[in-house]
Design a protein that fits this description.
This protein is mostly helical. The protein has eight helices and no strands. Helix 2 packs antiparallel against helix 4, helix 4 packs antiparallel against helix 5 and helix 5 packs antiparallel against helix 6.
């Protein structure tokens, strides 16, 4: 997604403007694979699983991810570039980064818990950089907004790299 977002900014690949739709695929993939004992295997019901605070936080983040993809795709389609939908990307990233930095996992093994928290820290920081860079791009006048906007594409690339290296403990 980050590479496609950077390509879109260069105007070399106009088709790359559809990169936000990849957030929908990411949401589906993560929702299905994030808890092997959850609703998808039938062991624990969907609503019963939501009683756990950690699971609820993860589900909220998934909804935010899907919302982000749809809203940003709507903005990138070019139909109405000045619509309020353009603020969804930075707001969702800022909220998601804050949640990543502040939520805790209920794991009995202290080492696993520490490793999870340690991997969430850089992800949360990179997400916050992307969110605030996009916010500043929208709010600052040129050329300052353009300079700030150059940071969110590479931040998406960094998030992708962190997710590729992510392990649950």
């Amino acid at each position: 997604m980050g590479v496609l977002a950077i390509l879109e900014r260069t105007d070399w690949a106009p088709w790359a403007r559809h990169w936000p739709l990849l957030f929908i695929g990411l949401t589906v993939f993560v929702a299905y694979n994030m808890d092997p004992e959850g609703w998808q295997t039938g062991r624990v019901g969907f609503w019963r699983q939501l009683l756990g605070l950690e699971v609820l936080q993860h589900r909220i983040l998934l909804v935010l991810t899907a919302l982000l993809g749809l809203a940003e795709w709507r903005v990138r389609s070019g139909r109405n570039p000045s619509s309020p939908w353009r603020y969804v990307f930075p707001l969702v990233f800022i909220v998601s980064g804050t949640v990543l930095l502040s939520h805790a996992h209920e794991v009995n093994d202290a080492r696993s818990s520490f490793l999870m928290e340690l991997t969430h820290l850089p992800m949360g920081l990179v997400v916050l950089v992307a969110g605030w860079a996009r916010w500043l791009e929208l709010r600052l006048p040129p050329p300052d907004g353009g300079r700030a906007g150059q940071w969110w594409g590479p931040a998406l690339c960094a998030l992708g790299a962190l997710l590729l290296l992510y392990r649950d403990g």
